[in-house]
Amino acid sequence: MADHCIFCKIANGEIPSATLYEDEDFRVILDLNPAALGHALILPKAHAANLFELPDETAAKALVLAKRISGKLKDGLNADGLNVVQNNGEAAGQTVFHFHMHLIPRYEGDTVNVKWKPGTLTDADKEKILNLF
Ligand code: AMP
Ligand code: ZN
Fold first, then answer.
1. Nearest one of 84, 53, 52 to 66, comparing CA atoms
2. Which of 7, 67, 92, 126 is paired with 20 by a 20 to 30 Å CA distance?
3. 82-126: per-residue pLDDT in tens?
């Protein structure tokens, strides 16, 4: 657990939260400032600042859990869709530096915005990126 990390304190029950699910590795809570009805956060109990620091085993379990909780939210709230959002780094919109996954139920005509302006994949960019792998 990291000092001064609010999500460590919430995940480990030191700070109360609206908890939808808990097991030995994770706590799933409602976001205090939801983008839409049912906006939930998956928090690992062990501190990792972001995806890059997350142990493989936790990463694998997180997606299975996201699938399970998302299905319950979507069905139970009669949502039309659901976004899984996960921000890493300030430039990517991360504001709490303890890994978390957003589950955001979507409703036709809602005000949630997770869109971007599509660009163009140039040959030079493609080459540069393919050469990384
Ligand atoms: P991100 O911008 O990806 O780091 O997301 C942080 C999220 O945490 C935001 O959606 C906040 O509304 C939410 N949040 C921050 N503090 C709390 C809290 N104490 N309880 C529940 N959600 C929180
Ligand atoms: Zn933490």
1. 84
2. 92
3. 999 999 999 999 999 999 999 999 999 999 999 999 999 999 999
